[in-house]
Design brief:
alpha/beta; Nucleotidyltransferase, domain 5; 8 helices; single chain; 5-stranded mixed sheet; globular; 280 residues
């Protein structure tokens, strides 16, 4: 059994895997957990402990631990005496994305605290670029503009918002459509900001802005690689409001966004799979 651990800036995720060749079939994920802690060592050991205790795993059955993420650099020894190796985060995302999507030669947009966009194929995983705009942006602006620090509460508030209170739309400045954009398209994020705007409108404006930026960067990456598909992974992949924003972008630019199951565990899964070598 292999344990893959993604030590993030806010959340640490861990998975257990049985690799092809040891289980007699295809590699498979057997368990998934996530934790939060203040430092990398506590996060990694806490996630590992939660994994084995909650799932009644015999520690002798674990042959290797693979760690990745921003906190991996802080761990320089084996965890509980089990051989522990580091895996580059970009490589982990690429491997995990291909595995979960069951596709090769893909563009992956990984939405976490920030956003990374990756061109992934067996034996060739390239970091195209990305943005500092991501879930961390929503949290930071939510704290400053709304006085809220809980992500789920911000999202609940955004679900009741009205973009027309904060965003300047083409409808506000033009009487006809322009190019392929209809009059409901955004002309300027937060470009209207009415005095009547409520906190829920501001919350929705923040989420909409973040996912519009992510969506457009993804469109540019996909078109540069002559593909019409983007695989969305990371913690931000299961955001319903974000998905709606990306769906609008699909309608405008004919780029499809696909969301694999368990996509928030992509990086941890990729790290674990890297233990098997092969095409990865």
């Amino acid at each position: 059994m292999i344990i893959g651990i993604d030590i993030g800036s806010t959340t640490t995720k861990a998975v257990s895997l049985e690799l092809a060749g040891t289980s007699g079939g295809q590699s498979r994920v057997t368990h998934m957990v996530k934790t939060k802690a203040a430092d990398a060592v506590t996060s990694a050991t806490g996630a590992f402990g939660k994994m084995i205790i909650e799932n009644k795993i015999n520690i002798q059955d674990i042959t290797r631990i693979m760690i990745t993420g921003v906190g991996a650099s802080k761990l320089n020894s084996d965890i509980f005496g089990i051989p522990t190796s580091k895996v580059d985060e970009i490589r982990s995302i690429g491997i995990g994305g291909m595995f979960l999507a069951d596709r090769e030669n893909i563009i992956i947009t990984n939405i976490g605290t920030g956003t990374a966009i990756i061109d992934a194929a067996p034996g060739r995983i390239v970091h195209i670029g990305g943005s500092g705009v991501g879930g961390g942006t929503i949290l930071g602006l939510g704290k400053r503009l709304l006085g809220m620090s809980d992500f789920n509460e911000i999202m609940e508030l955004a679900g009741r918002g009205n973009l027309k209170q904060v965003d300047l739309l083409l409808d506000d400045i033009m009487e006809t459509d322009i190019s392929f954009l209809n009059r409901e398209s955004t002309a300027s994020n937060f470009g209207k900001m009415l005095d009547t705007a409520k906190n829920e409108d501001i919350a929705l404006g923040v989420v909409n802005m973040v996912y519009q930026v992510i969506g457009m960067l993804s469109v540019f990456a996909a078109k540069s690689k002559d593909t019409g598909l983007v695989i969305v992974t990371g913690s931000g992949s299961n955001n319903p409001i974000g998905k709606n924003v990306l769906e609008v972008i699909t309608g405008l630019y004919a780029i499809q966004f696909e969301y694999p199951p368990d996509a928030e565990y992509t990086t941890a899964i990729g790290a674990g799979l890297a233990a098997g070598g092969g095409l990865w």
